[in-house]
Amino acid sequence: MTATEAPIIDICYEDDSLVAINKPAGLLVHRSALARGEKWFAMQLLRDHINQHVFPVHRLDRPTSGILLFAKSAEIARKMTTIFTDREARKIYHAVVRGFVSDHGRVDYPLKEELDKIADKMADQNKDAQEAVTDFLRIDQVELPYPVSKRHATSRYSLVQLSPKTGRKHQLRRHMAHLRHPIVGDTNHGDGRHNRFFREHFGIHRLLLAATSLSFPHPETGSMVYIDVPVPSDFYLPFQKDAIEIESKTAGELTEQSKEPNKNSQSI
Q: What is the pLDDT of residues 73-111, one digit of tens each?
């Protein structure tokens, strides 16, 4: 996606009441106080694509790709909001994280609300931490012969499936960081050295987090709806057998770079 070229809208589900797209990483959902200077928004692009006004019914952060659901009427949007609020919808994400994660587990760790200086300047700054629960399942893991950190001769990564049971802001990113397994490409809660390594070694400049599955009872019929999209192909790059042979950077060069300050840079 470039600043001058409109992103392609990939519809992954549609019926008379709902429509879902596979949102690309870097695309904002709709206009907001934080969107100054932005040209493209998922809601407007989809509206123009299907010639119909649409209503977003849940969040998907700008750097996260994957399933984003819209209602085709305000009434359906209200019903879907209730379904999400009552936790009747099930979401599954995939992510690449630093380190070797346990086979499976649950993170039950309350989170204080993250407030934006502009959008949330009128919000209560002293709210108590809220319940936040995430289940995780390790799908794959790899150890690469590159000393991204000067403390280790190799670097380890895991491909994980994440299932949030609550819907706190940046919950998955914050929970994985809490486990000391930050998501690669996370410029707020992640590790800048590993983010840099993925940019320079694999050519990956995005947050490696994608919403890959969404299921919920249909707001009109009550029948279960199942929406799935593939895990983005670049998530698999570190786990391929030839990953260690990619010659973007030598181990020596990376060792020198690992001595630099751990500064995050914008990934999108």
A: 999 999 999 999 999 999 999 999 999 999 999 999 999
The neighbouring-strand residues paired with 213 are 92, 228
What is the token pair recorded at 239? Answer: 């786990």
Summarize pLDDT for 204-240 with one digit per residue, the tens.
999 999 999 999 999 999 999 999 999 999 999 999 9
From CA 247, how far away is CA 26, in angstroms rounded? 27
Integer Cα distance of 82 and 88 in angstroms: 9
Catalytic residue, from 48, 61, 135, 234: name it: 61
What's the CA gap between 15 and 128, in Å, rounded?
A: 40
Query: Using DSSP, how many helices (H) and how many strands (E) does the chain show?
Result: 5, 10
108 is catalytic: no
**Residue whose C-alpha is closest to residue 161's, from 134, 180, 136, 133:** 136
Q: How many angstroms separate the CA atoms of 38 and 235, rounded?
A: 27
